[in-house]
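Kindly draft a polypeptide, keeping tokens residue-aligned:

***
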Amino acid sequence: MDEKYTSPEETLSEIKHLMERSSRFISLSGFSGILAGIYALLGALAAYYFLNSTGISPGYGPSNDLLIFLFADAFIVLILAVGTGILLTTRKAKADGNSLLDAAAKKLIVNLCIPLITGGLFCLALIYHGNTFYVAPAMLVFYGLSLVNASKYTREDVRSLGLAEVVLGLISLFIVGHGLLFWALGFGVLHILYGAYMYFKYEK
């Protein structure tokens, strides 16, 4: 009876794949990244129209009405992005035979959340002390650091996105008054480009 021959290269590739699955969560959905970017752009567009309709200039200290609107706007974008990400990633994980509750996924979430929560508290402190010009840059920098920190527990491509977010955030620190534009570029455009890249590279 003939047995299927497996070359050493195929065996090593299979071993590498199994090791990667055990140490990294690789079922991230690229399409969820695209949708997150679209949500962010829509949120930025809503903020832009709100600024124009009220005559408020982001180059001056924002009013309480603006802060409330921007907070609600960002919160809605966050809920939509996270909800879509969980839904699509869960479906992909099931298709890949992975679980959102395995060790690699838990490590990914923990390492993602530490800089993310720290950055959120830092941004609240900036708002509390009236340094709102630096909120958008800080969001980009801390979000980028959270991606870099979590990248060792998922695909290496996430690290590149994180570094791009950090660089964009640092640039925006020196261009005061254009936080909305940089926010749209970082959370909108970069997410769409990254999501499309991930989708065509791993899912198509």
Observations:
- Residues 12 and 18 are 10 Å apart (CA to CA).
- The mean pLDDT is 83.
